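Record type: monomer structure entry
Structure origin: computed from sequence
Chain ID: A
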Amino acid sequence: MNRLTPLTLLLALTLLATSCGGGRSESLFPSDVMSRAEKALEAKIDTLGIVSPTDSLRFLDVTAEERDAMTYLYAYMSLPDLMDHSIAYHLDNVWVSLRAREEMPWGKKVPGTLFRAFVLPKRVNNEVLDDFRTTYYDELSALVDTMTMEQAVLALNRWAHKHITYQPSDGRTSSPIATLRNALGRCGEQSTFVVAVLRTVGIPARQVYTPRWAHTDDNHAWVEAWVDGKWHYLGASEPAPVLDNAWFDAPVMRAMMLHTTAFGDYDGDEEVLSKNDCFTELNVTPNYIRTAPMTVRVLDGAGKPVEGATVTYRIYNYAELYPLVTRTTDDRGEAVTNLGLGDVVIFASKGKDLVAMEKMTNKEGGSTLELTLRPLDTIPAEQHLRLTPPVEQTPEVRYTEAQAAENARLLAEEDAVREAYTSTFPTADQAASLADELSATGEDRTLLLDLFPKSRGYHATIESFLRHAAESGRLHHALLLLSSLTEKDLHDVSITALEQVLDRDLTAADWQQPMIYCPRVLDREPVAAQQPELDLICEQILGSEELSREERVTRILERVGQLSYDKQYNPLNLPMTPASTWILQRGNQRSLTVLLIRLLRTAKVPAWFDFGNSVVRYRDDEGRERVIPFLKEEKESTTDCPLQLTYEQGTNTVRTPHYTSHFTVGYFDPADGQMSTYYFDDMVPYTDLQGKSLLYPDNFLLTGSRLADGTVLASIRRMSCEKPMAIDFDREEGALAVIGNFDSESLYEDLSGEERSLLSTTGRGYYLLVLARDAHEPSDHILRDLGAIADRSGKLPISTVVLTRQKPSEALHGLLPGAAWGVDTQGLDKALAEGLERSLPLDYPVVIVADTFNRVVYFHQGYTIGIGEQIADVLSRL
């Protein structure tokens, strides 16, 4: 058959030989393992119609072990990693992995199974791949080469903390080097970074996720490292005195499911949640909490078992019923998985027309639920659910006070190192000076003052780009281009990609439309520097004749529509670059979408992706928005159902419902009958969604109210296209109980150093007290959420005091400027624990609502999301 050659093969012949001879290592790559890998690789290249990348190794002097490592990687790596990275790139990383195994004191102690799954692979999750391993091996190995494995893991996590700290950001996961340069990362980036650090020196490491918390919104990711025969967990770039200790100890004990992935055809001790052509998904929940099997038995209308039904185990999070696990029933009609001890919603379907849904409570020893499939149109118009998370527990303290004190000292030293680096980032004054140098005025000056400080550690590259653009008279276009990107793009975007856009033949009118010149299409793909390739593809499709916009759209859509939709070797749904997608003539939905939109923009058609409805739109010659029928996954759709929502607050505590915070709109997927969510913009008021198109016929409104203990009151109501749907929330009536006492005349030190009492600050009545920490992700979340209930002037609806153990940083103080701030000089956590009959230490941050009669009516400790709404609910019932 005719085979296409991957882009990666073109660089193979430039490799230099660095080793010779050697036989197969049975400890790393046993014959049975390699037999399966070779068969998997053969099947992959046959399916894709490409030359095997490992064929080029014949031209290189590599050892059998290196050849096996490359074969194993290519057998199971995802399609974008195969197509978008050279053989030289992967071989360089193999060499470092094998070098670490030889040079590090623990190298040969790592079992081959763990080496193949958790050391050899570069990819951790959905991050941008880079050269971190080859760049930082020498530095990191020298740091820990005389340590034990445990000492090395702790030391490397401190190295990570010295360089990066937590800050929320968008869903695109930066590469480790970009995260390092930026000195910031959300939890997914922090954990990806630390896994990369550990794997670089040959320590098996994996990213563990709770896909969604049960007791609060959001999710979290951390790191597990294999040390001397056992997996241990740690907070990524959040050093603790010992392993198996982190700020999330208590939240994890309320989780329903924790999982990780193992590269390749992994055979370990963990429960397998799913297995595909690239990785094995593992259930690691039993490593942390008590679990029990949840068995779902699906029956048809006659009471007979249904084989092949899809069963999803769902929990409420961000106003949707998120599918934690998806199972397929066996010949007994059963699906089983091990989860924590709390409530889930089970949704079963067989095809698009037969469904069933019911709440299920997991208990010690396990639980079983029978569901009978019914036609979709017989589902009740309304369903109301009370969903209870696992009970709160107190985690074990695994370190001494002396260890805690030493850890605090080291954290301060590491913070100082990182802050010395970030002090070199551009300031507003430096941005103004650059604007003066470049003679930027008006809109250009405004853009530069906004964008340049956001470039952080990438500032030298961005500055060079702007200077070169100014020299060629293209500063305005360069600034427009930067402003069309995300803030995270300013930390790592390919300057070559930007220069290629500037070199396009765009008119002044084209530069008025970001959806023509912006090189970013979706929210998570790397911006590929491939404009010349796109120009060539467009020329092949459109020829040289003059065509109307409609004709250009038609021709491009017709040609891209001939490409094959294929997600077999891309289970993480990673986007492939446009050129690779074109060369391969196939791709997943994201890859095909990126190619289509980049081609349309190259043809000067304003085009973009509508995330809410998952469709491509463009603007025609008359300025009207048009939907492109580009749905490779076949679904029945309609475009005549505008979203109509109404809301009256009445007795509801929510003033203005926001999407994904209070409600979502979903549909029963016409492909498989399962529940899906329209992904409109997060956290926007319901009024912003009026008139949005609902492209599928069977829709529902899901609302939820989370109580102070984490319980959720959820409602699901079927929607009609013909009439508006009223947003409403379920509530539990009843006054708040007094749960403890706390002295309102307790003392603290305000920021001027003056000693004050809480009472003198808050005045009589109810008040809110927060005990927080600096550089602490849970405290960051709490303060941001409380800021959401302030009015436009920053005033909070209740007198609020925030106390930290040392004087708070400006950054922390800025998260809640409407509060009174101070330093806890008295150890108020001890008084709170006594008055509330809680065990020490309390899990920071600590939040209470109390009155000046010393009565506490609300208490929360530790990580949570959405506490502002909980406080609003409490205040409404005082």
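Annotation 1: Residues 401-422 form the longest helix (22 residues).
Annotation 2: Residues 1-22 have pLDDT under 50 and may be disordered.
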